[in-house]
Amino acid sequence: MKEIILITGEDCPLCEEAKELLNSLHLTGFSLIEKDIYTTRQIHNKYWNKIPVLLKDNQDLCWPFTSQNVKEFILI
Predict the structure, then answer these.
(1) What is the rounded CA–CA span in Å between residue 67 and residue 49?
(2) Helix H segments across the chain?
(3) Domain 2-75 has CATH 3.40.30.10
(4) Are 63 and 53 in contact, with CB atoms under 8 Å apart?
(5) At 1, is the pLDDT very low, low, confident or very high (cuts 50, 70, 90)?
(6) Which residues of 6-41 are buried (b: 16+ CB within 10 A; e: fewer)?
(7) What is the tens place of the pLDDT at every residue in 14-38?
């Protein structure tokens, strides 16, 4: 099963919106892992002003993204 990481922040309305969008897609064959922006300094430094962010195979998809953007992203 492939992993998709969702970088989020505490009390982030956009992050909640992104989670709802991802849940509505019912992605099969993928495991969604949520990581807080403060998990590592590297993640924080790179994405602090871009959350929510999806990560997969060393690629990222920054907000705003649509369901179509996510579908295309997971197929890359």
Answers:
(1) 21
(2) 13-25, 41-47, 67-75
(3) yes
(4) yes
(5) confident
(6) bbbeeebeebeebbeebeeeeeeeeeeeeeebeeee
(7) 999 999 999 999 888 999 999 999 9
Q: Cα(56)–Cα(1) distance, rounded to whole angstroms?
A: 12
Amino acid, res. 59: Q
Q: Which amino acid is at 26?
A: H
Average pLDDT, the chain: 95
| 72, amino acid identity | E
DSSP H stretches of helix in 3-54: 13-25, 41-47
